[in-house]
Design goal:
heterodimer, A: alpha/beta, Rossmann fold, 6-stranded mixed beta sheet, 4-stranded antiparallel beta sheet, 10 strands, 25% strand, globular, B: mainly alpha, 9 helices, 0% strand, elongated
């Protein structure tokens, strides 16, 4: 479904991606793990065409995204949904208006139908009764759930999640992970999840890609990752520092 | 610094072309546009009324203090009216709008960029130029001439109040001389300038907002730069446009 070929990107003189090659299969949940500042979010933004690479290509169902301009990307982006790290809810709109935004913008639906779908989405993400609140009055977890509802309400074919459980308590992280797994299963969505929450990664992933030093270091199943004796994978999985910072 | 200015000028030109292309190729988002017209046009009226009114009043008083000694008190009317229409109205109004509207646009867009709301719009298949930039651009460009016209009118009205009831100039002569020496082209020149100043304020505000640095400092700098740069460009361009428009519409 998505193919990444030799992707390079530098930001402010620093090489972030150094030749990423990756293939995402239709219907799978691929989790991208890696150290903080390792370029996971940058990679995700390239997959959605939100950033232009210095070199390399991103192919989506036979279309080279890197050759398209902003307007040519619009039909493809309608098949995609993205949950940003901090939600990126529009702060001038209520939660309900945020969630309704893709429906209002893309689909010619009656107001009643939009309201029904928003109410259903709020119920699924556990935010019933919070629809009229402004994003500024929501907690971090609620923002992420509202963002998830906004991204998924248009029933995209592929969902991108940028650190969906970062900064949340373990219970909330688990509920978000279950929500992602449920959405992927019920709506047959392909999902690409960027995280360094290993519990969540092993819970939802069909395959896990490790981004290390700007390249895909390993691509394997959660079981293979758990059994791996590779020092880089082992240290990351078990959170072992080799004293690089101290 | 020179390279930076050349690059910024190029970016502003491309931004302008993109907005104009969107204006003619995509439907206008009326709800967004009207919301911006309300914020830029209606909500700016108070400061424009105060600015125009008190500028006209104080200019009239100072002019009268001198003209009265020369026995030319009734000449104050045309002097103030022409100055309000050609220079004071457009320039002071533009400076106030650069501070209020330009900086607000820059602050809003830079915050949206910082919090990934611009990326979220793009990810939801809605181009920011269509949803955010065009409504703001059109609202500023259309509101500025209307606000300048208001500023001119209130400035002239304040001038009459100061001159006639307060400083006891003969009202009939005052109005007569004003209408005799003030021409429709004086108003036209002011409104042409207003359109250009509106364009400058909108483009500078949008450009600074979209190119803000990271963090609170970046938002602060973008906001300040939008107001300061737009004000400077308005003042400098006003000098050249005054000569150009005077050549096109000679006094």
């Amino acid at each position: 479904m998505i193919q990444v070929k030799g992707l390079y990107k530098s930001i402010a003189g620093q090489e972030i991606l150094r030749g990423v090659d990756l293939e995402v299969r239709t219907g799978e949940t691929l989790v991208v793990i890696g150290r903080s500042g390792g370029g996971k979010s940058v990679l995700l933004k390239h997959l959605l065409g939100l950033m232009e690479p210095d070199a390399g290509e991103v192919w989506y169902d036979g279309t080279n995204l890197t050759a398209l301009n902003e307007r040519e990307m619009i039909p493809l982006r309608r098949e995609m949904g993205m949950v940003f790290q901090n939600g990126a809810l529009f702060d001038s709109m209520t939660v309900s208006e945020n969630i309704a935004f893709p429906l209002v913008e893309r689909e010619c639906l009656l107001a009643d139908e939009v309201d029904q779908r928003v109410a259903r989405a709020l119920e699924i993400v556990g935010l019933s009764g919070h629809g009229e609140k402004m994003p500024s009055s929501l907690s971090g977890g609620m923002k992420k759930r509202a963002a998830l509802a906004r991204a998924a309400i248009g029933r995209p074919r592929i969902m991108f999640y940028d650190e969906p459980t970062a900064g949340l308590d373990p219970i909330l992280s688990d509920s978000i992970s279950k929500l992602i797994a449920r959405l992927s299963k019920e709506l047959s969505m392909t999902a690409i999840v960027v995280t360094h929450d290993m519990a969540s990664a092993c819970q939802i992933a069909d395959r896990i890609a490790m981004l290390h030093e700007g390249k895909i270091y390993a691509l394997l199943t959660p079981a293979e990752l758990q059994a791996s004796t590779d020092p880089v994978l082992h240290d990351f999985l078990h959170g072992i520092s080799k004293g690089e910072i101290l | 610094m020179v390279l930076g200015m050349v690059r910024s000028t190029g970016e502003v030109c491309f931004l302008f072309l993109d907005i104009v292309r969107t204006l003619f190729t995509r439907p206008l988002r009326w709800r967004q546009f009207l919301r911006q017209m309300y914020f830029v046009g209606l909500r700016s009226q108070t400061i424009i009324l105060v600015t125009g009114g008190f500028s006209g009043a104080v200019f009239t008083a100072q002019t009268l203090f001198r003209f009265r000694e020369l026995g030319m008190a009734t000449a104050t009317g045309p002097v103030v009216a022409v100055a309000m229409c050609r220079e004071l109205g457009p320039v002071l109004c533009a400076l106030m709008l650069a501070g209020r509207v330009g900086s607000s646009i820059a602050a809003e867009l830079s915050t949206m960029r910082l919090t990934e709301q611009l990326d979220a719009l793009r990810a939801l298949a809605v181009p920011p130029v269509e949803y955010l930039l065009l409504p703001r651009f059109l609202a500023v460009v259309l509101s500025t001439p209307l606000l300048v016209a208001l500023s001119m009118a209130i400035g002239i009205a304040a001038s009459w109040i100061v001159a006639v009831p307060i400083m006891e100039v003969d009202g009939a002569y005052y109005i007569s001389h004003m209408t005799q020496y003030m021409e429709p082209k004086d108003v036209g020149i002011g409104l042409i300038k207003a359109c250009i100043f509106g364009l400058i304020i909108a483009l500078v505000g949008i450009h600074k907002g979209l190119n803000a640095g990271q963090g609170a400092e970046g938002v602060g700098q973008a906001t300040t730069n939008a107001a300061v740069h737009a004000s400077l460009i308005v003042l400098i361009s006003n000098f050249f446009f005054s000569f150009l428009l005077n050549a096109i519409f000679p006094a």
